[in-house]
UniProtKB/TrEMBL annotation:
SUPFAM superfamilies: GST C-terminal domain-like (SSF47616), Thioredoxin-like (SSF52833). The lineage of its organism: Bacteria, Pseudomonadati, Pseudomonadota, Alphaproteobacteria, Rhodobacterales. InterPro entries: Glutathione-S-Trfase_C_sf, Glutathione_S-Trfase_N, Thioredoxin-like_sf. This is Glutathione S-transferase. Signal peptide: none annotated. One of its GO terms (biological process) is L-phenylalanine catabolic process. GO terms for molecular function: glutathione transferase activity; maleylacetoacetate isomerase activity. Residues 12-78 form the GST N-terminal domain.
Length: 288
């Protein structure tokens, strides 16, 4: 069964990121559709998905529509039990559900004061006492999960789970505003930013520009603190070293230069997402 997933602007929509990670990280088949959150077309784009008003939203092959990321998570976990969306151990699964539910309904100060943005890192942001309290609670939960259930791997419950899906935008907020957290949380944030799926999501988000930029604040910035991408640039013409797009297999029409070599793609989006972070795309790195 292939799902249709409806998401909004990748550089800013934290809930869309959660919805997409559910499919991407657990290898569930999906077609992704963009909704115009900042283009003013959201209501029109969601008109056939009633009663959906927000993203993410998914629709299955039978036309069943599920909105809200928590409802989506439970539906997918129920339908794809072997995919491992929740931890298999009952105690770990109970704590993971608790942490996801608390993320879904809480941490309002962090969400309000630090909207997710994947463009850069703000310097000099001073968190309020309420944001600091949210960060303290998040660190408590992360340490608890790791201490009790994280011995088998690097994620909150060892193996990647829905808990990591729901806290990925939190890690992005900590990174994007240089928020003060301890060493363990800092390491978890760095691991989240380095995850290939997060790098691909951000690369796709950076293909779109904004004027004005949503949620911009008057503070100096420095580059995004995730892995530094290989320097690449779009170029007007080939010839390219490949005749077919690494993603679609279609003939190349758009071109990119990397390390003195030219590579081709079937459209501007395929090229531009690769320019933003070439190493994030296994289909492209296979050409290297």
């Amino acid at each position: 069964m292939t799902y249709d997933l409806f998401v909004a602007d990748r550089a800013f929509s934290s809930w869309s990121l959660r919805g997409w990670l559910m499919f991407e990280q657990f290898n569930l088949p999906v077609r992704t559709h963009m909704v115009g959150l900042y283009d003013g077309t959201m209501a029109e784009d969601l008109a056939d998905l009633a009663p959906a008003r927000f993203v993410p939203v998914m629709r299955d092959a039978d036309g069943i529509v599920v909105g809200d990321s928590l409802a989506m998570a439970e539906t997918l976990a129920e339908r794809h039990a072997q995919a491992g969306l929740w931890p298999s151990d009952p105690a770990a699964r109970a704590l993971a559900r608790w942490m996801v539910a608390e993320m879904h309904s809480g941490f309002t100060a962090l969400r309000s004061d630090c909207p997710m943005q994947l463009l850069h890192q703000y310097q000099g942001f001073v968190p309020s006492d309420a944001v600091r309290a949210d960060l303290d609670r998040i660190e408590t939960l992360w340490v608890l999960a790791r201490d009790r259930h994280g011995a088998s791997g690097p994620w909150l419950f060892g193996a990647y789970s829905l808990a990591d899906v729901f806290y990925a935008p939190v890690a992005a907020r900590i990174a994007g505003y240089a928020l003060p957290v301890g060493a363990d949380a800092t390491a978890y944030v760095a691991q989240t930013l380095a995850a290939p799926a997060i790098r691909r999501w951000r690369a796709m988000g950076l293909t779109k520009s904004y004027d004005p930029v949503p949620y911009a604040i008057d503070l100096p910035t420095q580059p995004w603190p995730g892995p530094t991408p290989l320097p690449a640039r779009a170029v007007d013409a080939g010839p390219s070293e490949n005749a077919a797009c690494p993603y679609s297999g279609l003939p190349v029409t758009h071109f990119m230069e990397l390390q003195g070599h030219t590579f081709g793609f079937c459209n501007a989006f395929c090229r531009d997402k690769t320019v933003q972070d070439p190493e994030a795309w296994p289909a492209f790195t296979a050409l290297l």
